[in-house]
Amino acid sequence: MLKERDLVAKVPKLTVSRLRVWVNEGWIRPTAQDDDGFSEADLARAALIRDLLDDLGFGEEEVPVVLNLIDQIHGLRGELRCFVETIDSLSDDTRTEVKQKLTVRRAKLYRTEP
Amino acid sequence: MADDLYSVLGVSKTASGDDISKAYRKLAKKYHPDLNPGDSAAEAKFKEASAAYSILGDEEKRGKYDRGEIDASGQERPEQRYYREYAGGEGGQQYYSSAGFEDLGDIFSDLFGQRGAAGGARGGGARNFAMRGQDANYRLEVDFLEAANGAKKRITLPDGGTLDVSLPAGVRDGQVLRLKGKGSPGSGGAPSGDALVEITVRSHPVFKRDGNNITVELPLTLAEAGLGGKVEVPTIHGPVSMTIPAGSNTGQTLRLKGRGIKAKAGTGDQFVKLQVTMPETVDDELKEFLGSWRDKHPYDPRSKLRVGT
Question: Each residue's pLDDT tens digit in chain B (309 positions)?
Fold first, then answer.
């Protein structure tokens, strides 16, 4: 785990006061506010928020919208990964059957798209 | 690294600093790795654009680049660890949102009898429902004698676990054994599913089977068939001694009571089909004997074939 100042030192153009604003907004949620509360994921998330604000031209209003969408995508990817890994653990026969049915399903899905 | 940084950003060499920033921002929004999780092509494009912008976005460096004092690979940005690398692993789950695909989460639950990793995090809608675990199907090939006499077998499962199967004596080819509670675990306090084990029984070179009865073909010498006597006969429980009556013939069947399969439902018998067998070579002595015997004791074993002709 990282202390607040360690995290700030590792992300260029980040200051303690900026980080605290982001934590207050709930964009970053350290497990403990005081010491050692930040994970590597929090560090990378801070770098992302800095990119959004400094380089990509998003404002303070838009950042939570973007983060929300990203979090939804990762949640969805997590669910999907569970799903795929579960299918992976099945017997060869079952996996082949799932694969075939999935192929048919996906063909339908993309045909109905405009 | 691209040779021409201007073409990377899609601007002309005379573009203003503002135009360059705008062009970079447009590309960055499109290709930022955290906006394209799982897409490595996007990451490559983003890095290319970032590297170009790190030179062209800086008046001083841009001047050096234009004068040829630094090349396109001039200054690389330090490697940034993108959020997406963490979002999928340890520590990332706390930000997972299931808003907007609660319905999908429920589909997974229905399928697997448990809520997926992201489900409970923020959705708050985790349902508490009970569902019996799924049945698991397996196949097990066993030897004839194992099936006939019963045996303990162990199946190695795809996940490395094992499943002990107790074969009852007399289990049939194609029979499915149900092992209660050995399938997938249930959820919400519901019982586990069952393991269904389909048995394939290998054939045996000596024993054939009809229900719980066993059939064996027993070759006899001419003398054994003619004179009778004690002969050793294999059974599924081991060899036994059987008395052959004098004058036995090919095709006759003798019964060894209770020497078949000892199944729960009852014990079968073993049927011994006799097969009178000539010696491999008929020597002069036998020829001579049969010749003189034939002349004194003529008989017609084919008399019945001529009925009605």
Answer: 456 889 999 999 899 989 999 999 999 988 998 888 878 888 888 988 988 998 898 888 888 888 877 776 654 445 677 888 777 665 667 777 655 555 555 555 555 444 343 333 333 333 345 677 788 888 899 999 999 999 999 888 877 788 899 999 999 999 999 888 888 887 767 788 888 899 999 999 999 999 999 999 999 999 999 999 999 999 999 999 999 999 999 999 999 999 999 988 889 999 999 999 999 999 999 999 999 999 899 888 888 888 765
CB of B97 within 8 Å of any CB in chain A?
yes
Contacts of A83 in chain B (CB under 8 A): 108, 116
Residue of chain A minimizing CA distance to B100: A72
The span from the CA of B119 to the CA of B114, in Å, is: 10
Strand partners for B217: B273
Q: Of B201, B224, B251, which residue sits at a domain end?
A: B201
Q: How would you classify residue B189: left for phi > 0, otherwise alpha for psi between -120 and 50, otherwise beta?
A: left
Q: How far is CA B44 from the centre of its chain?
A: 40
CA distance A36 to B151: 59
B222 in a domain, yes or no? Answer: yes
Contact (CB, 8 A) for B237 and B257: no
CA distance A4 to chain B (A): 17
Asked if the Cβ–Cβ distance from A44 to B83 is below 8 Å, we say yes
CA distances, B163 to each of A105, B45, B168, B196, B198 (Å): 35, 51, 16, 11, 13
A contacts of B90 (beta carbons < 8 Å): 39, 41
CA B171 to chain centre: 22
- Residue B141 and residue B221 share a domain: no
Whole-Å CA distances, A51 to A24, B85, B223: 19, 16, 102
- Full residue range of the structural domain in which residue B12 is found: 5-86
